[in-house]
Amino acid sequence: MQRYFTTLLLTLSLAITTHAQVLIDSIPYPGMLSLGIWGIHVTPDTIFLGADGPGPIYFSDHDGNMLGNQPTGYTYNHGLIKRESSYLFAQSYTASGAKLHEVSLDGQLLNEWTFPPGIAGNSAGIGGLNEAGDGAIWFTVYHPYFQDYPYAFAYKWIPGTTTFLDTVPLHGKQPYGITLKGDTLLYVIDNIHGDQERIYAYDLTNEEDLFWFELPDTPIDNDQRPFGLHWDGNFLYLVANRQGGSAFAHQTLFIYDMGISTGIASNTVQRTMSLYPNPASDQVVVTLPDEELKDGVLLELLDVRGSVVRTWRMSSSTTSLDVKGIASGDHLLRAVRNGVPLITRKLVIVR
């Protein structure tokens, strides 16, 4: 199932201020910046950290005291899942599709899989991993990406299979850490392509964005280099670089209380677009609320590779599009105003 593709009427609801989160603590790891910590898994007595540069898995207590490390046989470590008797971590990048490795607790290779191609192509750059239950995992892909929303995707996948159980559209071109809090998917965006560094929340049940909040360093220079995320059942953990000037750079673990008792201050923007029929063969009727049309809207039809194959100008709230002559298959219909994407829906064309 692909989340933003499934319903006839999709509502995009995105909070534009902070929401139900409080930074309650941080754990500095001075001298560990060169390790490039991407992966994190937290248990009641130990914090497991995946080092992307040298590759080992490091252990610390909850006061930040290092307890040791376990070599993995690899020189990369993107994302980290600790199971009862093994670790899972991802290859950092390879154009033909990155690999997922499972090693024993003493570092012996147990299994190896290649991530299947995603919507934008081979899953070349893997940002983060998270346990999804019943043998499945969630992972983010930071390369390849699209230039417009949805920029990138997260996938739910059982290693060894060739299809996805679920797909979620993401904000930002560089999604890294990902974690699951009940039915809420949380992911963090880096600023490499000029995006704001934020943690976003997505409701898997209602298939909509919930809110986002900035990282501690975002108002300072928006360059905190966030990597791993982990929800341990009580708190949200984020591995990132320093807070403040680069002269004080080091790896830091930031700890958030995400409970609703911390209060909510959020504003939302509701955007809807309906398509009928869907699937369509010759014509499809598109409806947008009148308020979205005040400056005129351009409708762009994209193929699965993200290339625009046809455009229409929409000047009323309901318009009929001629899709005859367009190849059968899955497409994306995107509403754009003044160069800014408003909403994207899946349109299936059948013959």
Structure description:
It is a single chain. The protein has 351 residues and is an all-beta fold. The chain is 0% helix and 50% strand. The protein contains no helices and 28 strands. The strands form 7 sheets. Strands 1-22-23-26 form a 4-stranded antiparallel beta sheet, with no helix packed on it. Strands 2-21-20-19 form a 4-stranded antiparallel beta sheet, with no helix packed on it. The chain has a 4-stranded antiparallel beta sheet with strand order 3-4-5-6, with no helix packed on it. It is globular, with a radius of gyration of 21 Å. The N terminus is likely disordered.
Beginning-to-end CA distance, first to last residue = 22 Å
List how many beta strands DSSP finds.
Answer: 28
Mean pLDDT: 85
Poorly predicted tracts of residues: 1-19, 260-270
Shape: globular
Offer a few descriptive terms.
351 residues; mainly beta; 4-stranded antiparallel β-sheet; disordered N terminus
What is the topology?
Blueprint: E1 9-15, E2 22-29, E3 37-42, E4 47-51, E5 57-60, E6 66-70, E7 78-82, E8 86-90, E9 99-104, E10 109-114, E11 125-133, E12 136-143, E13 152-157, E14 166-170, E15 175-181, E16 184-189, E17 198-203, E18 208-214, E19 229-231, E20 236-240, E21 251-257, E22 268-276, E23 283-287, E24 297-302, E25 308-314, E26 318-322, E27 329-337, E28 340-349
Antiparallel strand pairs: 1-22, 2-21, 3-4, 4-5, 5-6, 7-8, 8-9, 9-10, 11-12, 12-13, 13-14, 15-16, 16-17, 17-18, 19-20, 20-21, 22-23, 23-26, 24-25, 24-27, 27-28
Short description:
With 351 residues, the protein is mainly beta. It is built from no helices and 28 strands.
